[in-house]
Amino acid sequence: MLAVLSITAPIFLLIAVGYISVKTRLMPQEAIPGLGRFVIYFALPALMFSTISSMDFGEVIEPNYLAVYALGSLLALLSGIGLHRFLLRKSLVESGVKGIGMSIPNSAFIGFPILMQVFDSPITQAFALAIMVENILILPLALIIIESGRRKEGENSGNIWLPVFSRIVRNPLIIAIAAGLFCSALSIRLPAVATEALDMLARASAPTALFVIGASLMGTQIRGNIYSISTVVTGKLLLHPLLVALVLWLWPAFDHRLELAVMIIAAMPMMSVFPIIGGNYGFRNTCASMLLITTVASFVTITLLLGVLT
């Protein structure tokens, strides 16, 4: 267990440092969104592009990993929507928002740093494939379901496909993956000076991301129905990884490192922009509460998971 704590403790220590820095006003809270944009628009895209572009094209895409993660996450999304819609009698809009919370992990800000701690060499391929599944399949599907619910309630009469498609093509991580795949397929290699600059940006991604997560939690208060919140928290930290584990158990074996990585990614708390997405539909405070509780509780669940898997 001490070996596992040596993996998770530094991760959550950096999160705590981010929280304390804003709490004590050493870092102004107004600066945190800028740091978050630095991670999403510069550091992580640099990491993914430099890694993917340097790989052989045939090695980038692992169909088994994609299938396991996509099926497990899709089951988590549909389970979350079905639970809230048919058992808890919530609107389709609210059910869709909570389904997102149960099925899309924080791969970028917490998942990748933990992968870097678990594996001797960075396993960027697993992270990039997870980002593809989340942003090309799960999130668009959830948003289409939510917008369909709004249309039935008379709140939306516009085109529900265009905003979703626009979100995908403007995502900097998806752009970086596509550019990396393009360079990999054509065997394009950047000059050494450009490669070194990208590597310098990439090295800043993990610690900055963890710092931002902690800092962004400062000021968040637990608001909303605790039963409703606990349902989503349980769904994300337990149901999602269990469904991925079930699919993985039924699926033919593939690269053990990727099998381990897919379980780790699925066990992460929900993505950091969950309150922003929920805020678009009137659930910002509740979603922020869910994010806070899930992130704090994930220290225990992730530590236990790594204790079992490693």
From TrEMBL:
Q: State the source organism's domain of life.
A: Bacteria
Bilayer topology annotation: Multi-pass membrane protein
Q: Tell me which UniProt keywords the record has, alphabetically.
A: Cell membrane, Membrane, Transmembrane, Transmembrane helix, Transport
Asked if Ligase is a keyword of the record, the answer is no
Where is this chain's protein located in or outside the cell? Membrane
The portions of this protein that span the membrane are 6-22, 34-54, 66-88, 100-119, 125-147, 168-188, 200-217, 237-254, 260-283, 290-309
The terms describing its cellular component in GO are: membrane
Q: Does the keyword Transmembrane apply?
A: yes
Q: Name one GO biological process term.
A: transmembrane transport
> What name does this protein carry?
AEC family transporter
Query: Which species does the entry assign this protein to?
Result: Marinobacterium mangrovicola
